[in-house]
Structures are given as structure tokens and as C-alpha cells.
Design goal:
CATH architecture: 3-Layer(aba) Sandwich
Number of strands: 6
Distance between the termini: 32 Å
CATH class: Alpha Beta
Strand content: 5-15%
Radius of gyration: 18 Å
Length: 255
């Protein structure tokens, strides 16, 4: 793997740290306004973060959650199914984690495991994935019509940047625990993951629940654009559009 590039001129640093912190502050103020409105109106929100390993999903969720009240905002990050869960209806363990009235949930991976890592790594059958593609648009339509608001982000990282981030995980004392055997396989199975991604976006991006693709080689830009999208998609009292700003179309693209 190549040497880690720390320069500000790197494509992974499209905005300066100073500009990023200033924008993030304004957006986090708006997120608090939105959270209060969600609580007052008893709405339910699911924000899904999917993408390749090391694409920046967890880091973005952390910035969303940084100043929110944990009483009405939480992260859902499920581990692999238990032996009992594996025998149950696939959707059961996910539905258990759905937001209560007035709650926002941020999903660090989701039911879309069945369309990505599971088929690529051989953790499910071809028929199970086919069934997933048949059921998903129908269920998501039912959930949305029932009042649950769903946002689906796909974080796209380049193969070169993913390799750099894996190298950082190998050497950084606070990140070594984040590197798993599945992470390492991501580089050698890049094409397989690409095929799975294309199929997933094609079969599960609907009018009710479109996929929003986020270019995440620059983590700062990806975080800012994701926050902007959520805030622009949801109206709330005293929303300040000037503070939210315009989304960079090179960073965030709807499918």
C-alpha cells in the first residue's frame, strides 16, 4: 500500500479544516432544531449509511450525533445475527430497532447487508438475495406510507483511498481494532462488491426510497453534504437555509 498522504492539497481534503469546522457548527445547530421538531411532531426517521468498508459511514454518523440529545436520537449498528436470529424472519431483528414516535435512528449498515457483504462473502444463498430484492421495495413503500421517513445514503470511496484508510487502521493505535478480515477482503474482491452495489442500487432505488450516493474520498465534504441533504429534505421551524448552504453536486448525487 502507498504511503499515507496527509497534505491539505490531497483530493481527500477538498475543504480546509477551518472551513469544515465552521460549516459543521452551523449544520449541527440546525440539526438540533430539526431534532426538537421531530420530538414535538412525533415523527419517525431512519437514516441509513451504507457503502464499502472504510467509506466513512461511522465517522459521518458520529458528526450527526455529536450534539444531538441521545434520548431521541440513537445509532443502530447490529452485529452478525445470533443463531436464534438466523432462524427467524430476516426482517425481524431490524424492525425491532425501528424508531419510536419522535425519534431519529442512524443506521451504520442495515438490512442491506443481504444485498452486499452477505452475497459477496457467501453468507447467504442466491435465492435469499433474490427474495430480498423482491421484498425490499414493497416493505419500504409500506413503511413510508405508514409515516416512517427513510433516507438511504451510499458512501462511495475509491479503491486507492480505501487502501490508504486500511493502511491507517493497521498503523494507528486507536484504529487497529477497526480492521477485520472482511475489510482486508474488500480490496481483493473489489469487482465483486462493485457488481453487488450496482445490482442493489438498480433493484432497490424507488420513488419512495431513492438511494443518495455520496462521494466520500473527502470525509469532510461527505459529512457536510449528508447533513445538508437531511436538513433540506425536512422542514422545521426557524430553518436557516443560508446556514445550511447549497450541496456540492460533485459530492452528493441522487440515483
Amino acid at each position: 500500500m502507498s504511503t499515507i498522504d496527509q497534505s491539505e492539497e490531497s483530493p481527500r481534503n477538498l475543504i480546509s479544516l477551518k472551513e469544515y469546522e465552521a460549516k459543521k457548527y452551523l449544520l449541527q445547530v440546525e440539526l438540533l432544531k430539526w431534532q426538537n421538531h421531530v420530538k414535538e411532531t412525533n415523527t419517525q426517521h431512519i437514516i441509513i449509511f451504507e457503502g464499502r468498508d472504510a467509506a466513512g459511514k461511522g465517522g459521518s454518523i458520529k458528526r450527526f450525533m455529536e450534539h444531538l440529545n441521545p434520548r431521541t436520537a440513537r445509532v443502530v449498528a447490529l452485529s452478525k445475527p445470533t443463531e436464534q436470529e438466523a432462524k427467524e424472519w430476516y426482517w425481524q431483528r431490524y424492525i425491532k430497532e425501528f424508531p419510536k414516535a419522535g425519534e431519529i435512528t442512524f443506521w451504520d449498515r442495515s438490512w442491506y447487508n443481504r444485498a452486499g457483504v452477505e452475497p459477496v462473502m457467501g453468507f447467504c444463498t442466491v435465492n435469499q438475495t433474490k427474495q430480498f430484492f423482491k421484498e425490499t421495495p414493497v416493505l419500504e413503500k409500506i413503511w413510508v406510507e405508514g409515516g416512517i421517513k427513510i433516507v438511504k445514503f451510499w458512501y462511495s470511496v475509491s479503491k486507492k483511498e480505501q487502501a490508504r484508510r486500511f493502511q491507517e487502521r493497521e498503523t494507528h493505535p486507536l484504529k487497529q481494532g477497526k480492521l477485520s478480515p472482511i475489510d482486508i477482503a474488500s480490496q481483493t474482491m473489489w469487482d465483486e462488491y462493485t457488481k453487488a452495489k450496482i445490482q442493489m442500487l438498480d433493484k432497490t432505488s424507488t420513488k419512495e426510497c431513492p438511494w443518495i450516493q455520496v462521494q466520500s474520498d473527502c470525509k469532510r465534504s461527505a459529512r457536510i453534504a449528508s447533513m445538508q441533504y437531511v436538513l433540506l429534505k425536512n422542514d422545521y421551524p426557524d430553518r436557516n437555509l443560508e446556514n445550511i448552504g447549497a450541496i456540492n453536486p460533485n459530492i452528493l448525487k441522487g440515483v
